[in-house]
UniProtKB/TrEMBL annotation:
Signal peptide: none annotated. This is Nitroreductase family deazaflavin-dependent oxidoreductase. It comes from Marinactinospora rubrisoli. Belongs to the F420H(2)-dependent quinone reductase family. InterPro entries: F420H2_quin_Rdtase, Split_barrel_FMN-bd. PANTHER family: DEAZAFLAVIN-DEPENDENT NITROREDUCTASE, F420H(2)-DEPENDENT QUINONE REDUCTASE RV1261C. The lineage of its organism: Bacteria, Bacillati, Actinomycetota, Actinomycetes, Streptosporangiales. It catalyses: oxidized coenzyme F420-(gamma-L-Glu)(n) + a quinol + H(+) = reduced coenzyme F420-(gamma-L-Glu)(n) + a quinone.
Length: 133
């Protein structure tokens, strides 16, 4: 099963033919700029759609702290996204509470574990909106 760096590698090499469809969900590759190193970091993430925008969840499996990719995009919201063979620049932002209330149920439908992750952590798990630019 694909996961982590191997997932990114195979996804990029095959234009998403391998890795886009994963365990019943669809995955994109999010590339952020490291807030301390300035290096590019690519992460495979389950996504949803909201019109032209893409939505991802900064769950880290319900860990007590936000994932590094989320901290990176808060520091520098200009990101690169790959969906299948389509690669584009996007502006990332944390959904407002109203947007999250509307979008979370769809993300939990796509990946039901998100509700479990939220239940096991005290932090409010961010939902991120990726707007192609």
């Amino acid at each position: 099963m694909l996961y982590g760096a191997e997932h990114v590698k195979r996804y990029v090499e095959t234009g998403g033919r391998e890795g886009h469809d994963w365990r019943g969900a669809q995955v994109l590759i999010l590339t952020t700029t490291g807030r301390r190193t300035g290096k590019q970091h690519s992460t495979p993430l389950i996504y949803g759609r909201d019109g032209e925008n893409y939505t991802v969840v900064a769950s880290l499996g319900g860990a007590p702290d936000h994932p590094q990719w989320y901290k990176n995009l808060v520091a520098d919201p200009t990101v690169r996204v790959q969906v299948k063979a389509d690669v584009f620049t996007a502006e990332a932002r944390t959904a407002t509470e109203e947007e999250k209330a509307r979008l979370w149920p769809e993300m939990a439908r796509i990946w039901p574990d998100y509700d479990d992750y939220q239940a096991k952590t005290e932090r409010s798990i961010p939902l991120v909106i990726l707007r192609p630019v």
